[in-house]
Amino acid sequence: MTDRQVVAAQIGREPRSVVEVVARCPLGLPVVIRVPPNLDDGTPFPTMYWLTCPLASKRIGRVEAGGGVKAAEDRIAADPVFAARHQAAAERYRRDRDAMLGEEAPSHVPTGGVGGTRRGVKCLHAHYADHAAGNDNPVGRQTASNVEPLDCTTACVVAGDAAMIRNPGWREPPA
Prior knowledge:
By secondary structure, the chain is an alpha+beta fold. Helices cover about 40% and strands about 10% of the residues. α3 packs across α4. The longest helix has 22 residues, at about 80-100. The chain is globular and about 50 Å long.
């Protein structure tokens, strides 16, 4: 089983770029992959770190549905220290992604902070992925408190007849 096969099963489709795993769960499966600024077909892609873990995605979806993006933006507006850390994370993300583009970057490629944003919080999944990839991201760290531990006791994917598939026996661990 390759990381690419596992990621394809986790996200429900073939990845559109090289799969470089930058974070794994305790079971050794991918949690976050680094995505190049241009996909295999040349399409610009603003999200450098992509969350693949079904458990983390599900839990973050609940946080977002409960107003998590607004809560993060409210904290940025109210807490100058948190806001400065958020801005520093956005600038680091933009610099790192732009460095991946190299000197011959086409002018049409969007640049921005986490997930391609120019300001604010686009989605908690992207911030958490940046944090889980080992970066200082205060929004991702705050999100982690609602997501971790990633404490599955069974793998989210298993080998099927012809490929890796989502494990029909996988269940979200109780909180």
